[in-house]
Amino acid sequence: MIKKGTLLLTIIIVLSVLIVSCTQPAQPGQSQASQTPEKTYHWKYVQAVPAAAIHINNTVFLPHLENIEKRSNGRLKIDWVNWVETPYKGSDALRVARDGLAQGCEVLFGYCTGDAPMLGAPELQYMAPHKVDLPELYSLYGKVWSNPKVKAAVLDKTMQDFNAVSLGVYHWGPQPFWLTREVKKPADFKGMQIREFSAEGADMVRALGASVTLVTAAEVFTALERGMCDGLISAPQAMLAGGWYEAIKYVYLSNTRITANSFTINKKAWDSLPPDLQQIMAEEIAAACAELNVANVEDSYKLYELFGNQMTFNEDNEEDYQYIRNLCKENVWPNWLKRVGPQGNDVLNMCLEAMGASERY
User: Fold this and answer.
1) Could you report the per-residue pLDDT of 130-152, keeping only the tens digit for each?
2) Looking at the 3D structure of the chain, how many domains does it have?
3) pLDDT at residue 197, as a whole number
4) Gap between the Cα atoms of 145 and 155, Å rounded
5) What is the per-residue pLDDT for 20?
C-alpha cells in the first residue's frame, strides 16, 4: 500500500512537470495552442481595369500587389477588383472609400468632381500655355503635383473630408478625341455628340459647339456602334482595354489634359493595419505609382502606333491649340471656379504657375 506522503509527493511532481511543459516557449517547428497566430488581412481594391485586360495599370500594379503579399508572408493580400464586379461606379469612389464599402478604391478625379469639385483643379483642360509633346506634358503635371500647397488643398483636404488616406497619385494616358466622324479643325466639332466623363470636360465639349453624351464606360461601345455618340475623350489605354477602338475611325490628337487617380484607402481600414504592413504597402504602392507615371508615355506612343493601322490621325497645331485653350479660359476654368467658390482661385493660380502659364485669377 502506498503511503499518503508518498502519494502526495508523486502528485506534486506530476503537476510540476505539467506546469513547466505548458509554460516553456515553443521550439522551432513546433506548434502550440497557447500561441496566437498573426492576424491576416484580405482586402479589395476597386478600380477601372479588369484584371485580365491588356492595360499598363495591370502590368505595373499587379506585381506590386504580389510583392505586398510576399513581403508580408501572406498576412496582407489585396484583390484587384473591377467596378463592374461591384454595385458601384467610378463616380461613387469617394463615398465607397468614406463608408468602407471596400478597403480601397481608385479615385479618378474627373469622375469624382461632383462630390469634390476641388479635384478638378490640377487637370483643368488646356492649362499648359503651349502645345507640347507628351514627355513635356507629363513633366508639367509632375510640377503641379510636386507643389505641397496644391496637394494639401486638393488631395489631402479631400481625403480628410471623406475619411480616407491616399497612398499615391498615378496618371492615365493622354486624353485626345476618338471619333467616328473626321475632325481636322476645332470648328468640325460643331453639332457632334461627344462622350465625356467630367463636368469640366463637358463644359469644354459644349464650348466647342458639340453636345455631351452621358453614358457609363460599360455603355460606350454600344453608344458608338449605334450612333448615339460620335466619339469620346479618353486615354489610348482605355480604348484598348474597353475594346472601344473597334468602333473608331478617326482621332483628333490634341492633349486636352492628363487625368490623375488616387490610390485611396478607407482610414479605418488603414489604421487597422500594424505598422510593418503599413510600411510594406506604402512602399509598394509609391513605387507602382512612380513606375506607372513614367511608363505611360512610352505606352501611349506604342498604342498610337498600333491604332494608326486602322484609324486616321489628325493632329492639332499651335493655332488650333490656342483656339481651344481660349475657349477653356472663357468657359471651363470660370465654371469650375463657380463650382468650388473663392478658395479655388489660389489653387488654380498655383496650378497655372506650375504649368508655366501667365494667367491668374
Assistant:
1) 999 999 999 999 999 989 999 99
2) 1
3) 87
4) 10
5) 37
Give Cβ neighbours of residue 67 (< 8 Å, ≥ 6 apart): 284
The gap from C-alpha 138 to its chain's centroid, in whole angstroms, comes to 16
C-beta separation of 158 from 165 below 8 A: no
Angstrom distance (rounded) from CA 35 to CA 109: 46
Which residues face 264 on adjacent strands? 105, 166
Domain assignment of residue 33, yes or no? no
pTM of the model: 0.86
Share of the chain above pLDDT 90, in %: 83
What are residue 232's DSSP bridge partners? 178, 195
How does residue 35 score in pLDDT terms, banded at 50, 70 and 90?
low
142 domain-assigned: yes
Output the domain CATH number for residue 90.
Answer: 3.40.190.170
Task: Answer whether residue 126 is part of any domain.
Answer: yes
Bridge partners of residue 42, in order along the sequence: 77
Identify the CA nearest to 94 among candidates 66, 81, 113, 79. 113
Domain that holds residue 222: 41-355
Q: Is residue 12 part of a domain?
A: no
Whole-number Cα distances in Å, 213 to 132, 185, 194, 198, 275: 29, 21, 6, 11, 46
Q: How many angstroms separate the CA atoms of 110 and 116, rounded?
A: 10
Where on the phi/psi map is residue 241: left (φ > 0), alpha (ψ -120 to 50), or beta? alpha
Hey, what's the cell of 300?
Answer: 501611349
